[in-house]
Design a protein that fits this description.
Distance between the termini: 77 Å
Oligomer: single chain
Strand content: 5-15%
Shape: rod-shaped
Number of domains: 2
Helix content: 55-70%
Largest sheet: 5 strands, mixed
């Protein structure tokens, strides 16, 4: 499905292997081959028995495989690719048999090993362990990227596959313990027997088939590429620890198991590194999204011409501040500001000059409303508003007068104005107390018809009161501020010449 492509690109099983990764994988294979060729001639050299080696090696191996299987199962839950489920089972199978091998190894937890182990238990567990993995890798390679049909069936498939894998591991453990006498003798008095070469040759053949099957899966995904490295290390592991060596605890025995640990760690390390990279990309994408959302929020609440808040932001703010005023009984004031004779300014100087005039007036208005919580906004056209939380109307009027003075000091020429020879503003001031005195029932009774009167919300009443004061300022000569006091009465306008 097209919608799955971006998701697929996030996983090792579908992510194409780049040239740097191919070169790195080739370097690992060549280095492993060189080390194998150096060690093979001296693999039979006996070394001291290190009691802690097997427990440390196999516990680390089992933990790595369990973590790898868990990550692969999580990816299967998203992609629903059968191959991922098979590969997760391969790692789970090796982990289960590694644990059984550890428990049954003679001389570690008991002289003859636990689980009812016999002389052939651990060596056959090792062979079954190293047979199961390449078989499942071959099936993985042949499965391709087929997916199960429904997402809902993925959990059932996972439970069934995990149960079958653990059951197979338990059955093989039972066979090598209770039924070990039925199996051919591979180890006698700590030394390998001729039958071992036949079994090892068969396992080697399986690993070669697994390599060929993986090589056919072009173009390689990152997972395919590193699986090839793992299977190569698997070959060297078997070759050193069960092929060219002669007995337990010789050089080949130790070197082969170190190869096994390395091979088990390859996919885990790549998965963890890739997951870390994906998390970093996710964090970066989240931060970009957050910044984009913040920018969109800013743009949606900012007037493009003046840089002040826009009408939408003002409507949200006045509603919020009004409710806060009702709850905490704090004062709230509003200024409504209008540029005097602005239409004549546009007609005389043009709209470009008009826009520049509005920008400069907005800067003057915003420069005076600088307290925390104050909001200066463009209300529409040449009209501005300033919302003043925690401000009495008397203090709001003083601010209105300072705004009038600040605009006058701009000295923007306005030859067509009837108020002055430069741009001026008129300001209406109102407070929340007067708006709260509005009586919707009285307003309804005063209606001259039988229609139901719908009272405007209180914030709208505050705006209407400030507008009423603005009209009074205009009616008394403009270029001044007028206030509607808390009693709902208009104070005399301030004459700038006074």
């Amino acid at each position: 499905m097209p919608s799955e492509a971006p998701v697929d690109a996030m996983f090792l099983s579908t992510m194409p292997a780049g040239r740097p990764e191919r070169r790195l994988a080739l370097a690992f294979v060549l280095a492993s081959t060189f080390v194998f060729l150096v060690l093979a001639p001296i693999a039979t050299r006996p070394l001291a028995q290190v009691g802690a080696f097997i427990p440390a090696y196999e516990a680390t191996l089992a933990l790595n495989d369990v973590i790898t299987a868990t990550i692969l199962l999580a990816q299967f839950g998203v992609l629903r690719m059968r191959g991922l489920l098979l590969l997760a089972c391969a790692y789970l199978f090796t982990a289960a048999l590694a644990i059984a091998h550890l428990l049954s190894f003679p001389g570690l937890l008991s002289p003859t090993g636990l689980l009812g182990a016999g002389n052939q238990t651990t060596v056959w567990l090792y062979m079954f362990w190293h047979t199961g993995f390449p078989i499942l890798v071959i099936v993985y390679a042949l499965t391709g990227q087929r997916r199960i049909a429904e997402r809902a069936s993925a959990p059932r498939a996972m439970l069934g596959a995990v149960a079958a894998t653990l059951a197979a591991a338990a059955a093989l453990t039972l066979l090598t313990t209770s039924g070990h006498d039925l199996l051919p003798v591979l180890l006698q008095d700590g030394h390998y027997q001729p039958m071992l070469s036949v079994v090892v040759t068969g396992i080697w053949s399986l690993c070669v088939v697994a390599l060929l099957a993986l090589a056919r899966r072009r173009p390689y995904s990152v997972l395919d590429l590193w699986l090839i490295v793992v299977v190569c290390a698997w070959l060297f592991d078997i070759g050193l620890s069960a092929g060219v060596n002669a007995a337990r605890f010789d050089l080949g025995f130790y070197a082969g198991r170190i190869y096994g640990l390395i091979s088990a760690s390859f996919i885990l390390l790549v998965l963890l590194a890739r997951n870390g990279g994906l998390y970093a990309r996710l964090v970066a994408a989240h931060e970009t999204q957050r910044q984009l959302a913040a920018e969109l929020q800013r743009l949606s609440s900012t007037d493009g011409l003046t840089g002040l808040a826009n009408r939408r932001a003002f409507d949200q703010a006045i509603d919020s501040e009004w409710r806060r005023t009702l709850r905490y009984k704090t004062p709230l004031s509003l200024l409504v500001i209008d540029v005097d004779h602005f239409k004549r300014f546009n007609d005389t100087y043009g709209h470009v000059a008009g826009d520049e005039c509005l920008r400069r007036v907005a800067e003057a208005v915003g420069g005076k409303a600088r307290r925390a919580g104050d909001l200066a906004a463009r209300y529409g056209g040449e009209e501005f508003v300033v919302l003043l939380p925690h401000t009495e109307t008397v203090d709001a009027r003083r601010l209105a007068e300072r705004i009038c003075e600040a605009v006058r000091e701009l000295r923007i020429p306005h030859a067509a104005s009837m108020a002055a020879d430069h741009v001026t503003v008129s300001v209406g001031v109102a407070g929340a107390v007067a708006a709260m005195r509005f009586d919707p029932k009285a307003d309804a009774r005063s209606a001259n018809d039988n229609r139901t009167a719908v009272a405007p919300p209180a914030p709208a009443t505050l705006v209407a009161n400030a507008d009423r004061a603005l009209y009074a300022a205009k009616a008394t000569g403009r270029n001044r501020a007028c206030m509607l006091n808390d009693e709902g009465e208009l104070d005399s306008a301030v004459d700038p010449a006074a």
